[in-house]
Amino acid sequence: MRTRNLIMAAGGLSASLLLVVPGVATAGPKPAPSPEIKSSAVIAPFNLDVRRNSVLVADGGLNLVGKLKKNGTIATIAANQPGASGVARSKDSRWLAFTTTVSNPQTFENTASGLNLWGPWGKRIYADTYAYETKKNPDKKYHYGVKNPSKCVSDALTAMQFPVSYQGQIDSHAYSVAALKGGRWVVADAGANALFSVSKSGKIGTLAVLPPQPFTFDAQAASALGLPDCFIDVTYNFESVPTDVEVGRDGFLYVTTLPGGPESPALGARGKLWKVNPWNGKATEIAGGFLGATNLAIGKKGTFYVAELFAGTITKVGLGTRSTVASLPGVVAVETGPDGSLWAATMANEDPKAPGTIVKIVHGKAYPAGT
What we know:
The chain is mainly β. A hairpin with a 4-residue loop joins strand 2 and strand 3. It has one domain (3-26, 54-307): 6 Propeller (Neuraminidase). It has helices spanning 3-10, 17-20, 129-136, 151-159, 219-224, and strands at residues 45-50, 55-59, 64-68, 74-78, 87-89, 96-103, 110-118, 124-127, 143-145, 165-167, 174-179, 185-189, 194-198, 204-209, 213-216, 235-238, 241-247, 253-258, 271-276, 283-290, 293-298, 304-308, 313-317, 322-327, 331-336, 342-346, 357-362, 365-368.
Protein backbone atom coordinates (compact mmCIF):
# COMPACT_ATOMS: atom_id res chain seq x y z
CA MET A 1 0.00 0.00 0.00
CA ARG A 2 1.41 3.33 -1.01
CA THR A 3 1.75 6.47 1.12
CA ARG A 4 -1.14 8.19 -0.62
CA ASN A 5 -3.50 5.59 0.88
CA LEU A 6 -2.18 6.38 4.34
CA ILE A 7 -2.74 10.03 3.60
CA MET A 8 -6.22 9.52 2.24
CA ALA A 9 -7.11 7.72 5.44
CA ALA A 10 -5.63 10.48 7.57
CA GLY A 11 -6.59 13.51 5.51
CA GLY A 12 -3.47 14.68 3.66
CA LEU A 13 -2.05 15.36 0.22
CA SER A 14 -2.47 12.73 -2.45
CA ALA A 15 -2.96 12.35 -6.15
CA SER A 16 -6.55 13.32 -5.37
CA LEU A 17 -5.88 16.26 -3.06
CA LEU A 18 -9.11 17.95 -4.08
CA LEU A 19 -11.12 15.15 -2.50
CA VAL A 20 -9.69 15.60 1.00
CA VAL A 21 -9.58 19.38 1.34
CA PRO A 22 -13.20 19.97 2.47
CA GLY A 23 -12.34 18.58 5.89
CA VAL A 24 -9.42 20.94 6.48
CA ALA A 25 -10.33 24.30 5.04
CA THR A 26 -12.59 25.36 7.89
CA ALA A 27 -10.04 26.89 10.25
CA GLY A 28 -11.48 30.38 9.91
CA PRO A 29 -13.16 32.88 7.59
CA LYS A 30 -11.66 33.52 4.17
CA PRO A 31 -10.16 36.96 3.53
CA ALA A 32 -12.81 39.56 2.78
CA PRO A 33 -13.07 39.94 -1.00
CA SER A 34 -12.26 43.25 -2.59
CA PRO A 35 -15.25 44.94 -4.25
CA GLU A 36 -12.98 45.97 -7.13
CA ILE A 37 -11.02 42.87 -8.06
CA LYS A 38 -12.14 39.24 -7.73
CA SER A 39 -10.47 35.94 -8.58
CA SER A 40 -12.57 32.89 -7.91
CA ALA A 41 -12.28 31.09 -11.23
CA VAL A 42 -10.12 28.23 -9.93
CA ILE A 43 -10.80 24.98 -8.10
CA ALA A 44 -7.47 23.33 -7.27
CA PRO A 45 -4.74 25.90 -8.08
CA PHE A 46 -1.82 23.74 -6.95
CA ASN A 47 0.96 25.97 -8.29
CA LEU A 48 1.56 29.49 -9.59
CA ASP A 49 4.25 31.03 -11.78
CA VAL A 50 4.59 34.78 -11.25
CA ARG A 51 6.37 37.14 -13.62
CA ARG A 52 6.33 40.91 -13.88
CA ASN A 53 3.27 41.15 -16.08
CA SER A 54 1.60 37.78 -15.74
CA VAL A 55 0.54 35.03 -13.36
CA LEU A 56 0.14 31.45 -14.55
CA VAL A 57 -1.75 28.76 -12.66
CA ALA A 58 -1.92 24.97 -12.86
CA ASP A 59 -5.41 23.90 -11.82
CA GLY A 60 -5.88 20.19 -11.13
CA GLY A 61 -9.59 20.66 -10.59
CA LEU A 62 -10.19 22.26 -13.97
CA ASN A 63 -7.42 20.18 -15.61
CA LEU A 64 -5.76 23.15 -17.25
CA VAL A 65 -2.88 25.57 -17.24
CA GLY A 66 -3.96 29.16 -17.65
CA LYS A 67 -3.10 32.82 -17.32
CA LEU A 68 -4.79 35.13 -14.85
CA LYS A 69 -6.57 38.01 -16.56
CA LYS A 70 -7.15 41.45 -15.07
CA ASN A 71 -10.84 40.69 -14.55
CA GLY A 72 -10.00 37.60 -12.50
CA THR A 73 -10.91 35.03 -15.12
CA ILE A 74 -8.45 32.44 -16.38
CA ALA A 75 -7.38 32.40 -20.02
CA THR A 76 -6.68 28.79 -20.94
CA ILE A 77 -3.20 28.04 -22.27
CA ALA A 78 -3.35 24.24 -22.11
CA ALA A 79 -6.72 22.51 -21.82
CA ASN A 80 -7.55 18.88 -21.02
CA GLN A 81 -4.46 18.35 -18.89
CA PRO A 82 -5.44 15.74 -16.27
CA GLY A 83 -4.29 16.48 -12.76
CA ALA A 84 -2.32 19.57 -13.78
CA SER A 85 -0.32 20.65 -10.74
CA GLY A 86 3.13 22.13 -11.43
CA VAL A 87 3.82 25.09 -13.70
CA ALA A 88 6.97 27.08 -14.49
CA ARG A 89 8.52 29.09 -17.29
CA SER A 90 12.10 29.10 -18.50
CA LYS A 91 14.23 32.09 -17.59
CA ASP A 92 13.64 33.63 -21.02
CA SER A 93 9.92 32.71 -20.92
CA ARG A 94 10.20 30.88 -24.24
CA TRP A 95 9.40 27.49 -22.70
CA LEU A 96 6.44 26.47 -20.56
CA ALA A 97 6.68 23.43 -18.29
CA PHE A 98 3.78 21.82 -16.48
CA THR A 99 3.11 18.49 -14.80
CA THR A 100 0.13 16.17 -15.26
CA THR A 101 -1.03 13.00 -13.50
CA VAL A 102 -3.75 10.51 -14.38
CA SER A 103 -5.34 8.74 -11.41
CA ASN A 104 -7.98 6.07 -10.95
CA PRO A 105 -10.83 7.87 -9.13
CA GLN A 106 -11.92 4.67 -7.36
CA THR A 107 -8.55 3.46 -6.10
CA PHE A 108 -6.56 6.73 -6.20
CA GLU A 109 -3.80 4.81 -7.94
CA ASN A 110 -1.73 6.90 -10.35
CA THR A 111 -1.55 5.35 -13.80
CA ALA A 112 0.42 8.04 -15.66
CA SER A 113 2.47 11.09 -14.76
CA GLY A 114 5.03 13.34 -16.37
CA LEU A 115 6.38 16.74 -17.35
CA ASN A 116 5.12 18.57 -20.43
CA LEU A 117 7.52 20.96 -22.17
CA TRP A 118 5.99 23.40 -24.64
CA GLY A 119 8.39 25.55 -26.65
CA PRO A 120 8.60 27.88 -29.64
CA TRP A 121 7.09 26.94 -33.02
CA GLY A 122 4.72 24.46 -31.46
CA LYS A 123 7.40 22.16 -30.08
CA ARG A 124 6.03 19.62 -27.60
CA ILE A 125 8.04 17.22 -25.42
CA TYR A 126 6.71 14.82 -22.80
CA ALA A 127 9.02 13.44 -20.11
CA ASP A 128 7.36 10.31 -18.72
CA THR A 129 8.22 10.24 -15.00
CA TYR A 130 5.93 7.24 -14.43
CA ALA A 131 7.91 5.18 -16.94
CA TYR A 132 11.19 6.35 -15.39
CA GLU A 133 9.96 5.50 -11.89
CA THR A 134 8.82 2.07 -13.09
CA LYS A 135 12.28 1.38 -14.48
CA LYS A 136 14.46 2.95 -11.76
CA ASN A 137 12.36 3.27 -8.57
CA PRO A 138 15.02 5.43 -6.84
CA ASP A 139 13.62 5.10 -3.30
CA LYS A 140 13.66 1.29 -3.36
CA LYS A 141 16.84 1.60 -1.28
CA TYR A 142 14.81 2.89 1.66
CA HIS A 143 12.84 0.85 4.17
CA TYR A 144 9.49 2.23 5.31
CA GLY A 145 7.18 1.13 8.06
CA VAL A 146 8.40 -0.84 11.08
CA LYS A 147 11.51 -3.00 11.02
CA ASN A 148 11.04 -6.40 12.69
CA PRO A 149 7.51 -5.65 13.93
CA SER A 150 5.92 -7.79 16.63
CA LYS A 151 2.70 -9.65 15.85
CA CYS A 152 0.79 -7.12 17.95
CA VAL A 153 2.21 -4.23 15.92
CA SER A 154 1.62 -6.00 12.58
CA ASP A 155 -1.95 -6.88 13.47
CA ALA A 156 -2.75 -3.33 14.59
CA LEU A 157 -1.33 -1.76 11.43
CA THR A 158 -3.07 -4.27 9.20
CA ALA A 159 -6.39 -3.60 10.93
CA MET A 160 -5.96 0.13 10.23
CA GLN A 161 -4.92 -0.60 6.63
CA PHE A 162 -1.47 0.86 7.23
CA PRO A 163 1.45 -0.82 5.44
CA VAL A 164 3.53 -2.71 7.99
CA SER A 165 6.99 -2.99 6.45
CA TYR A 166 8.07 -2.30 2.87
CA GLN A 167 10.74 -0.95 0.54
CA GLY A 168 10.11 2.05 -1.70
CA GLN A 169 7.49 1.08 -4.24
CA ILE A 170 6.69 2.21 -7.75
CA ASP A 171 4.59 5.37 -7.94
CA SER A 172 4.90 8.71 -9.70
CA HIS A 173 3.09 11.97 -9.08
CA ALA A 174 5.04 14.72 -10.84
CA TYR A 175 3.74 17.52 -8.65
CA SER A 176 5.91 20.65 -8.97
CA VAL A 177 8.51 21.93 -11.42
CA ALA A 178 11.18 24.66 -11.52
CA ALA A 179 13.58 25.82 -14.20
CA LEU A 180 17.29 25.02 -13.94
CA LYS A 181 20.17 26.49 -15.91
CA GLY A 182 20.95 25.25 -19.38
CA GLY A 183 17.36 24.62 -20.37
CA ARG A 184 16.91 21.88 -17.76
CA TRP A 185 14.12 21.39 -15.24
CA VAL A 186 13.72 19.88 -11.80
CA VAL A 187 10.55 18.01 -10.86
CA ALA A 188 9.38 17.29 -7.32
CA ASP A 189 7.71 13.89 -7.59
CA ALA A 190 5.36 13.27 -4.66
CA GLY A 191 4.89 9.62 -5.58
CA ALA A 192 8.53 8.70 -6.16
CA ASN A 193 9.70 10.70 -3.10
CA ALA A 194 12.42 12.13 -5.31
CA LEU A 195 13.64 15.11 -7.29
CA PHE A 196 14.09 14.39 -10.99
CA SER A 197 16.12 16.38 -13.48
CA VAL A 198 14.70 16.72 -16.99
CA SER A 199 16.79 17.83 -19.96
CA LYS A 200 15.46 20.05 -22.73
CA SER A 201 15.08 16.89 -24.82
CA GLY A 202 13.01 15.19 -22.09
CA LYS A 203 15.67 12.86 -20.68
CA ILE A 204 15.09 12.13 -16.98
CA GLY A 205 17.63 11.58 -14.21
CA THR A 206 17.52 11.42 -10.41
CA LEU A 207 18.88 14.44 -8.54
CA ALA A 208 17.95 13.39 -5.01
CA VAL A 209 15.80 10.99 -3.02
CA LEU A 210 14.28 12.42 0.14
CA PRO A 211 15.07 10.34 3.26
CA PRO A 212 12.40 8.56 5.33
CA GLN A 213 10.84 10.43 8.22
CA PRO A 214 11.00 8.29 11.38
CA PHE A 215 8.43 8.78 14.11
CA THR A 216 8.67 7.08 17.49
CA PHE A 217 5.33 6.56 19.21
CA ASP A 218 4.79 7.47 22.82
CA ALA A 219 1.72 6.55 24.85
CA GLN A 220 -0.13 9.71 23.87
CA ALA A 221 0.43 9.30 20.11
CA ALA A 222 -0.50 5.61 20.21
CA SER A 223 -3.67 6.35 22.13
CA ALA A 224 -4.62 9.19 19.79
CA LEU A 225 -4.56 6.81 16.82
CA GLY A 226 -6.28 4.02 18.73
CA LEU A 227 -3.17 1.85 18.69
CA PRO A 228 -2.40 -0.70 21.45
CA ASP A 229 0.29 -0.25 24.08
CA CYS A 230 2.67 -2.46 22.11
CA PHE A 231 3.24 0.59 19.87
CA ILE A 232 4.90 2.60 22.63
CA ASP A 233 8.56 3.22 21.67
CA VAL A 234 8.01 1.69 18.22
CA THR A 235 9.51 3.70 15.33
CA TYR A 236 7.61 3.94 12.06
CA ASN A 237 9.50 5.23 9.01
CA PHE A 238 7.13 7.40 7.03
CA GLU A 239 7.85 8.50 3.47
CA SER A 240 9.03 12.05 2.76
CA VAL A 241 6.64 13.39 0.12
CA PRO A 242 8.08 16.37 -1.82
CA THR A 243 5.44 18.94 -2.70
CA ASP A 244 7.43 21.86 -4.11
CA VAL A 245 10.89 22.68 -5.35
CA GLU A 246 12.49 26.07 -5.93
CA VAL A 247 15.97 26.98 -7.14
CA GLY A 248 17.86 29.38 -4.89
CA ARG A 249 20.25 32.10 -6.00
CA ASP A 250 23.01 29.89 -4.61
CA GLY A 251 22.11 27.10 -7.04
CA PHE A 252 20.81 24.83 -4.29
CA LEU A 253 17.31 23.37 -4.35
CA TYR A 254 14.75 24.14 -1.66
CA VAL A 255 11.99 21.63 -1.08
CA THR A 256 8.90 21.24 1.08
CA THR A 257 7.75 17.79 2.16
CA LEU A 258 4.76 16.17 3.79
CA PRO A 259 5.44 13.37 6.28
CA GLY A 260 3.71 10.70 4.23
CA GLY A 261 1.22 9.84 6.95
CA PRO A 262 -1.29 11.35 9.37
CA GLU A 263 -1.02 15.12 9.73
CA SER A 264 -3.20 15.81 12.71
CA PRO A 265 -2.89 16.67 16.41
CA ALA A 266 -2.32 12.92 16.95
CA LEU A 267 1.24 12.99 15.61
CA GLY A 268 1.82 16.72 15.41
CA ALA A 269 2.93 19.01 12.61
CA ARG A 270 5.69 17.15 10.76
CA GLY A 271 6.05 18.91 7.40
CA LYS A 272 9.60 20.05 6.59
CA LEU A 273 11.65 22.50 4.57
CA TRP A 274 14.88 21.13 3.05
CA LYS A 275 17.99 22.39 1.32
CA VAL A 276 19.14 19.90 -1.32
CA ASN A 277 22.55 19.85 -2.97
CA PRO A 278 21.84 19.19 -6.69
CA TRP A 279 25.39 17.94 -7.27
CA ASN A 280 25.41 15.12 -4.73
CA GLY A 281 21.74 14.79 -3.70
CA LYS A 282 22.39 15.49 -0.01
CA ALA A 283 19.30 16.84 1.77
CA THR A 284 19.65 19.04 4.87
CA GLU A 285 16.64 19.97 6.98
CA ILE A 286 16.19 23.73 7.40
CA ALA A 287 12.98 23.80 9.42
CA GLY A 288 10.20 21.48 10.53
CA GLY A 289 6.88 21.57 12.33
CA PHE A 290 4.72 22.58 9.36
CA LEU A 291 1.12 21.40 9.10
CA GLY A 292 0.57 20.52 5.45
CA ALA A 293 3.63 22.08 3.76
CA THR A 294 2.35 22.09 0.18
CA ASN A 295 4.39 24.91 -1.39
CA LEU A 296 7.20 27.36 -0.77
CA ALA A 297 8.58 30.64 -2.05
CA ILE A 298 12.07 32.07 -1.64
CA GLY A 299 12.24 35.59 -0.26
CA LYS A 300 15.14 37.97 0.22
CA LYS A 301 18.04 37.67 2.67
CA GLY A 302 17.60 33.98 3.43
CA THR A 303 13.87 34.00 4.09
CA PHE A 304 11.33 31.44 2.93
CA TYR A 305 7.55 31.36 2.80
CA VAL A 306 5.74 28.06 3.38
CA ALA A 307 2.10 27.40 2.53
CA GLU A 308 0.60 25.26 5.30
CA LEU A 309 -2.60 23.79 3.89
CA PHE A 310 -3.89 22.17 7.06
CA ALA A 311 -3.02 25.15 9.25
CA GLY A 312 -4.53 27.60 6.76
CA THR A 313 -1.53 29.92 6.99
CA ILE A 314 1.51 31.19 5.14
CA THR A 315 4.56 31.06 7.40
CA LYS A 316 7.71 33.14 6.99
CA VAL A 317 10.92 31.37 7.98
CA GLY A 318 14.15 33.25 8.59
CA LEU A 319 17.40 32.59 10.40
CA GLY A 320 16.07 31.33 13.71
CA THR A 321 12.74 33.14 13.28
CA ARG A 322 9.24 32.15 12.23
CA SER A 323 6.09 34.22 11.83
CA THR A 324 2.65 34.04 10.24
CA VAL A 325 2.31 36.26 7.18
CA ALA A 326 -1.36 35.61 6.46
CA SER A 327 -4.25 33.41 7.50
CA LEU A 328 -5.60 31.76 4.35
CA PRO A 329 -7.77 28.68 4.90
CA GLY A 330 -7.19 26.22 2.08
CA VAL A 331 -3.90 27.79 1.00
CA VAL A 332 -2.05 25.44 -1.33
CA ALA A 333 0.42 27.61 -3.27
CA VAL A 334 2.66 30.60 -2.64
CA GLU A 335 5.09 32.54 -4.84
CA THR A 336 7.00 35.80 -4.60
CA GLY A 337 6.17 38.71 -6.88
CA PRO A 338 8.71 40.99 -8.55
CA ASP A 339 7.53 43.93 -6.44
CA GLY A 340 8.24 42.14 -3.16
CA SER A 341 4.65 41.00 -2.68
CA LEU A 342 3.47 37.42 -2.30
CA TRP A 343 1.00 35.59 -4.46
CA ALA A 344 -0.95 32.65 -3.11
CA ALA A 345 -3.75 30.31 -4.12
CA THR A 346 -6.44 28.55 -2.10
CA MET A 347 -8.49 25.44 -2.75
CA ALA A 348 -12.21 25.44 -3.37
CA ASN A 349 -14.15 24.13 -0.38
CA GLU A 350 -17.40 22.19 -0.14
CA ASP A 351 -18.39 22.72 3.49
CA PRO A 352 -18.63 25.59 4.07
CA LYS A 353 -19.03 26.40 0.39
CA ALA A 354 -16.21 28.60 -0.91
CA PRO A 355 -14.54 29.07 -4.30
CA GLY A 356 -10.87 28.57 -4.99
CA THR A 357 -8.97 31.84 -5.17
CA ILE A 358 -5.72 33.44 -6.23
CA VAL A 359 -4.61 36.21 -3.89
CA LYS A 360 -1.97 38.89 -3.71
CA ILE A 361 -0.50 39.53 -0.28
CA VAL A 362 1.00 42.89 0.64
CA HIS A 363 2.34 43.64 4.12
CA GLY A 364 0.57 40.65 5.62
CA LYS A 365 -2.85 41.49 4.18
CA ALA A 366 -4.56 39.32 1.60
CA TYR A 367 -6.33 40.63 -1.47
CA PRO A 368 -7.95 38.84 -4.44
CA ALA A 369 -5.57 38.76 -7.35
CA GLY A 370 -5.27 40.92 -10.42
CA THR A 371 -2.48 42.59 -12.29
